[in-house]
Each structure stands twice: as C-alpha cells, then as structure tokens.
C-alpha cells in the first residue's frame, strides 16, 4: 500500500461546492477550516499543491442550459475558480503558510502565470501552490486539470476531497444500502465495475501515467491533513 510511506509532494483537489458550504459564493468558516488543515500538513513536512473547482460560482454546462454560449460560460467558470484560489490563499497566509497562486489565464495583478518548474520550486521552499483558472480552456474540468498539474509538477499522488461520501463505493451509497466501500481499488477494477470516480479524462491520465489517486471525505475532523500526510483514509486507486 503506497500509503505506508509518507508522500513527498501531493496535489489536493477541492471542489468549489465545498467552498460555498452548499450555497453560491464563499463560506469563510469552511475555507478557514480547510486552510488550517493544509497548514498542519505543511508543518508535517509534505509539499502541497492545490486545485480548486468553481462550482460554487458557475458551471459552464449549467449556464449553457440556460442559454449562454458554452465557451464564454466556461470562462466564467474558470474565473470563479480564481476567486476560490484567492480566498484559500488568504486563509492559508493567516495560518502562516506562504502561498502562490498560479493562473492558467493571464492576470498579472492577481496571480503568477502557470509555470510548472517555478511551481515545483515554490513547493520545495515550503510554499503551497494554488492552481487557478483550470486549464485555461473551455470544455475541460478542474478534475482533469488536477491530474495534469499533479503529473507535470511531479506529485506522488492526486488526493480528491469529496463532500458527503468518504471514498469509492461498489454502488452509490445514497441509493443502495448494500454498497460497500473499497479500501483499495485498481483503475481496471474501477472501469470494469463502471465506477464514476472522477471524470473520464482525469481517470485515464492517472491510469496511463500510474499516478495513485486517493478519494476521501473531507468532512471528518482532520481528514484533509490525514490524507495529505499519507495516512490510510478513503480509497486508494492504483494500477
Ligand atoms: N472550467 C473550464 N475549463 C477548465 C476548468 C474549469 O472550462 O479547465 C469551467 C467549467 O465551466 C466548469 C467550471 O469552470 O464547470 C468550474 O469548474 P468545475 O465544474 O470543475 O468545478 P467543481 O465542480 O470542482 O467545483
């Protein structure tokens, strides 16, 4: 089990939904709590990169259903992720953690551009790097971007923080009371059982490049810290 050795560097994917505490906009107490847990892990010695979604502001596909042009709506979605990055940056710095936001869309006053080697350097210095604006490309998701950024910045694992579920189950635990949670799972088993863990592009990036994925519930006390520090939590998906 890869989790018996602590990670050197990891990428944490947080959904925008979590940042909103279930509503549109930001729930400061949620962001502060997440920041505190990331700070604890950084203190524990792990290098951390973060990708934050933007579902608490806009999702391109939803705006499209309400009549907007998809690509413009997707750019709105990406801009939403940047607001989440700034919120996380603020609360991390309140915890005494140095941070850098790197945006896939140029916005010099707000964030550095995405420069992978510089991101690695930041992490080596103990800074948390927060990647914003997704891939900078419409029709992509922040799940896919999190796998890509984890690979390009040489992270040991992709950690997917979930709300309302604490790992990968054999069936939807909300719909099927007989569903059981996997402690470990292979990518092939996930495919064979039709389990939708992350979107298909993110899944195949991890599988093809042998990047371990940990899917865990972010609600329990200290869960994010535990996942970042490589403790056994949630479901480990590997080749
Ligand atoms: N988005 C995009 N390209 C990307 C990443 C995100 O177009 O590379 C847009 C897309 O519209 C998406 C929105 O940004 O709906 C918010 O991201 P996502 O839905 O992945 O956030 P989450 O569900 O994790 O909160």
Automatic annotation (TrEMBL):
UMP binds at residues 54, 74, 135-142. ATP binds at residues 13-16, 55, 59, 163, 169, 172. GO terms for molecular function: ATP binding; UMP kinase activity. It is found in: Cytoplasm. Its EC number is 2.7.4.22. It comes from the Bacteria. It is an enzyme of class 2 (transferase). InterPro entries: AceGlu_kinase-like_sf, Asp/Glu/Uridylate_kinase, Uridylate_kinase, Uridylate_kinase_bac. Pathway: Pyrimidine metabolism; CTP biosynthesis via de novo pathway; UDP from UMP (UMPK route): step 1/1. It catalyses: UMP + ATP = UDP + ADP. Inhibited by UTP. One of its GO terms (cellular component) is cytoplasm. Homohexamer. Belongs to the UMP kinase family. This is Uridylate kinase. It comes from Intrasporangium calvum (strain ATCC 23552 / DSM 43043 / JCM 3097 / NBRC 12989 / NCIMB 10167 / NRRL B-3866 / 7 KIP).
